[in-house]
Write a structure and sequence with these properties.
Length: 140
């Protein structure tokens, strides 16, 4: 199955995205713990796309597709038509660096990579694709 959602690039639209992801994961019977982790990971990537790639310009949009090629194996595909950002190559700062520089932020993508089993980035002219992979525990 495939489930699709399109939201405009405004932070207040992230609530719609989280609700969509939760409903899809409920249908798939993903465990409560993993459901919360996956919502957090998808929200983090989409927040970065909205803030950094589109600068919160609500004339732009992003698309999320959730696929389950086999039971329990999930693929979250986020399409971005903005400036893009190679999440797969991103090296998160260490906790020590963040504390030392008193930097705000910087932990989100580190968390995404910890939650997900795999992260890919693909660029084609005018389109950036972020793929997040996770093998899930199902409750039924």
């Amino acid at each position: 199955m495939e489930y699709k959602c399109r939201i405009y690039c405004a932070k207040e639209k992230l609530c719609e995205l989280r609700t969509f992801v939760k409903k899809v994961l409920d249908k798939m019977h993903v465990s409560e713990r993993q459901k919360n982790e996956l919502i957090l990971a998808v929200d983090e990537v989409c927040t970065n796309v909205i803030v950094h790639s589109h600068r919160c310009d609500d004339r732009h949009y992003l698309e999320l597709t959730i696929k389950d090629p086999t039971p329990g194996a999930l693929v979250f595909e986020i399409l971005d038509y903005g400036d893009g950002f190679d999440i797969a190559r991103y090296e998160a700062p260490t906790l020590e660096e963040i504390i030392k520089t008193k930097r705000k932020g910087g932990l989100g993508l580190r968390l995404v990579k910890k939650i997900m089993d795999g992260v890919e980035y693909e660029y084609t002219p005018k389109k950036h694709t972020y793929r997040l992979f996770k093998k899930c525990e199902l409750t039924q």
